[in-house]
Amino acid sequence: MPLIRRIPKRGFNNARFAVRYIPVNLEALNRFDDGANVDENVLRGLGLARGTGRWIKILGTGELTRKLTVTAHAFSASARTKIEKLGGACQLLKSPATERAAQAAAAAAAAAAAAARKPAKPEKAEKAEKPAKPEKPAKAEKADKPEKSAKAEKPAKTEKPAMTEKPAKPD
Fold first, then answer.
1. In CATH terms, is domain 22-97 a member of 3.100.10.10?
2. Does the pLDDT of residue 29 top 80, yes or no?
3. What are the sequence ranges of the domains in the chain?
4. Do 40 and 49 touch, CB atoms closer than 8 A?
5. Cβ atoms 73, 42 nearer than 8 A
6. pLDDT at position 16, please?
């Protein structure tokens, strides 16, 4: 089948909004000296974070043997525990999740400020309550219904008299 027929023509595509992290394993961080500060620029400079992604995530694959202060956009849970177990520190940079949280907080603050500026409107008269609907009787069980015979008799069709003579035409 041609490629053009296999590609979806419409609908939502998450490619523009997807968050793509560049993974860096803990084992690769053993090349730094004990007590070093490891950040995004150092990782990209040494080629540990290769790729076109904007954000770096430290993964817990491998064993870390040095105390480091690591600054990245995200950490896996195992990487965070391994770094902190050796006395190191994990510092978060601005990541997509924190950006979204900051945007949501700013929007909520703006909405609250806008609501505080508007004068309170007098409440409208309460609408008259509608009377309660009467309850419907419970449906009868199938056993209570009269049973239909296998073949119900149909009323006989009455035949219409055939018109054999044509009506006379006035001359």
1. yes
2. yes
3. 22-97
4. yes
5. no
6. 82
